[in-house]
Amino acid sequence: MALSFAGLLIAVLALPPSANAGVKYPECKSGPLKSNVVCDTKASPEARASALVAAMSNSDKLANLVNNSPGFSKLGMSAYQWWNEALHGVAHNRGISWGGQFSAATQFPQAITTGASFDDDLVGQMGIIISTEARAFANAGRAHLDFWTPDVNPFRDPRWGRGHETPGEDPFRNSKWAEAFVRGMQGTGPTHRVVATCKHFAAYDLENAGSTTRFNFNAKVSTQDLVEYYLPPFRQCARDSKVGSIMCSYNAVNGVPACANEYLMDTILRKHWNWTDDNQYVVSDCDAVYYLGNANGGHRYKSSYSAAIGAALEAGCDNMCWATDGTQPNAASAFNSKAFSQATLDKAMLRQYQGLIRAGYFDGPDSLYRSLGAADVNTPFARETALRAAQEGIVLLKNDDGFLPIAQNSSLSVAMIGFWANAADKMLGGYSGSPPFKHDPVTAAKAMGITVTYVNGPLTQSSADSSAAVSAAQKSNVILFFGGIDNTVEKESQDRTSISWPAGQLSMIQKLAAVGKPVVVIKMGTHVDDTPILSLPNVKSILWVGYPGQDGGTAVMNIIAGLAAPAGRLPITMYPSSYTSQAPQTNMALRPSGTYPGRTYRWYKDPVFPFGHGLHYTTFSISPDTAYPAKFSIQDVLADCTKVTGRTYYMDLCPFPSIPITVTNTGSRTSDFVVLGFLTGMYGPAPYPIKTLATYKRLFNVTASQPGTAKLDWNLGSLARVDEKGNTVLYPGTYTLLLDQPTKVNVTFVLEGREEVLDKWPEPPS
Length: 766
Ligand SMILES: *[C@@H]1O[C@H](CO)[C@@H](O)[C@H](O)[C@H]1NC(C)=O
Ligand SMILES: *[C@@H]1O[C@H](CO)[C@@H](O)[C@H](O)[C@H]1NC(C)=O
Ligand SMILES: *[C@@H]1O[C@H](CO)[C@@H](O)[C@H](O)[C@H]1NC(C)=O
Ligand SMILES: *[C@@H]1O[C@H](CO)[C@@H](O)[C@H](O)[C@H]1NC(C)=O
Prior knowledge:
Layout: H1 5-14, H2 45-55, H3 58-63, E1 68-69, E2 80-81, H4 111-117, H5 120-139, E3 146-147, H6 171-186, E4 195-201, E5 208-209, E6 212-213, E7 218-219, H7 223-230, H8 232-240, E8 245-248, E9 252-253, E10 256-257, H9 262-272, E11 281-284, H10 288-292, H11 305-315, H12 331-336, H13 342-358, H14 380-393, E12 395-399, E13 413-418, H15 441-447, E14 451-455, H16 467-475, E15 478-484, H17 503-513, E16 519-524, H18 531-534, E17 539-546, H19 552-560, H20 579-582, H21 600-603, E18 620-624, E19 631-633, H22 634-645, E20 655-665, E21 671-683, E22 692-702, E23 708-715, H23 716-719, E24 721-722, E25 728-730, E26 733-739, E27 745-752, E28 756-759
Parallel strand pairs: 3-4, 4-8, 7-9, 8-11, 13-14, 13-15, 15-16, 16-17, 19-27
Antiparallel strand pairs: 1-2, 5-6, 9-10, 12-17, 18-20, 20-23, 21-22, 21-26, 24-25, 25-28, 26-27
Helix pairs in contact: 2-13, 4-14, 5-6, 5-14, 6-8, 14-19, 15-19
Bound molecules: 2-acetamido-2-deoxy-beta-D-glucopyranose (NAG) (4 copies).
């Protein structure tokens, strides 16, 4: 279509006010809202939100059910973009504009790497820094107050393109990670620094598998798997962390698209988890509502877009994100065709704006967090924390003859080969912003005074020329190969079909190993099957780094040179490449059956490296307190929890006596150590639990003379099992806590008495 210049000008002028420009706080002292209760900071958030909604006209309400809200000009409320991203740092995305003093923001490692740190204080600190920077961007009119992070779906299938956005495959680990991160993002007080969003609710971890895509996939999930595996991070977010927002996912669950799923969004989320109307809204994943109607490629769950909008809103979705692939949702037309009710419209407004009230949107320029500004972005502390996060998340997978760390000396020369050896951009991964600096491994090695010969290597190219790499290797005394995959290979809307090492990289590693010098493979990204390189004699060491963020190169070189000691643990099971032909991606079942091998460390038996694997530069021993009781009575424990708290309790949160432990460093290098505690035993119906992560703790700087001590905390939920109806049950029986991976020592105790249901699960619709 050809528009004249004048026509173009008119078209531009006719656009609604841009919602992308950054937050413009409403004027409460002089604007149209000045005598409205919404501006009264002493009134309750509920009262303030109700007063605001009462002042809105229906046509304005209908226009503001979308992410790019035009605002309420009669109320002096500017356009507002609900869609802002900050998965591992303030990101490049619609609601955020970069420039001036806000040209950079701290870029932490992706969640898969901080997942490997098993350090929740670190994750909480990261949340504080990200939200502080995000709020500073917002205060400067460069972002808004809602951030659609974290991504806490358990990483079920190794092909998933977005697995690196999550903390890993284990629901308990993801729940703890989410707890720490949401607390960091929102803050602990009544006013939120920013509003966090836990996504994607629920059972989402497929982008595309043949003609099945995330827009039309119907995830068939048993009630047991849903409660035990897919939902715990969301229960943590909603029920326990009171996150400000939840995003419903593209896929359907048992026949009903998640964004129109009343069972998930109302029966479970709002009612069973008590995530009431008071401070939170559900936002749809972008275009999810479009794809649940009659759109091509979607669920075809409803026969028109209007009906889809009605189904989503009536089921409990409060804001429809539109990604511009689909058609913009027309809420007014859906409302006029009676696809949803006035009460539903008012409730959606109430939920959306209570979130903003709690983030201080109407509290004036002197309110909490409004003074955050450019000086609070990219602070030295943020830089240190980003480096520490990368170091803590690096996992030493293999280290023959204690080859690493490399002792530095004046004749040390290394060949640094591979696609990301000097490509710092690669280390950031998806949903990134602009970091204040990017330190790639080559730059970091040179800064340490190491003699470096750098040669690029292939990413996916299958017949790459290895001659330059081999000749660099011949001139050096150590070969560092930087391989794996990046987020052009695994990414949003693109799952993989293979988890093998890319052929060109494998062939280059084989040629480098044949040179006769020691080779260290440093692996970026998530799943690739290391089997073919584990048998190469000169490949002494393998490090896994995930996506280590802005200072990833420094972190890697610090570990290689021994300036930091590796103590991360795999947050995922590393599967053999044959797994992809044994487990159809669309099979959501966790348990094995027939030739289906099952999923995750709980059920899959033949990993290349197991979940929790991670070596050290030293050795450790663990001693649990021998005075830990051998027997508990279930009824006494339950009586105690109500006595201690004096209130009605979610019984799964009731603490179970902690186990004091001492960790001794039996080698000579100072190192952190992650204590992993897995439960197994004979309790409840057969088949008995295989092994379930029940508690963990990272101990810092453990030395031979300074052992690490900790109390391993857990609760009744860690001990309970989920039955086929979804009930969480505490059973009598014999429990064994296995410490470390592989197990170093165990603690056995008995629970006596009657089994007790800790959480009675609402039956799904039949
Ligand atoms: C449910 O939430 C409401 C409002 O947040 C709160 O008053 C109530 O105590 C909660 N119920 C439980 C069992 O925690
Ligand atoms: C220096 O370090 C390299 C790599 O560890 C080693 O191969 C070499 O023998 C060392 N040289 C001296 C003089 O120690
Ligand atoms: C561990 O030791 C390092 C190096 O001495 C220090 O910077 C860091 O603060 C220590 N960490 C903790 C948690 O004590
Ligand atoms: C626990 O440790 C004891 C003693 O080392 C060992 O005999 C037993 O097999 C272990 N139990 C499990 C379940 O690993």
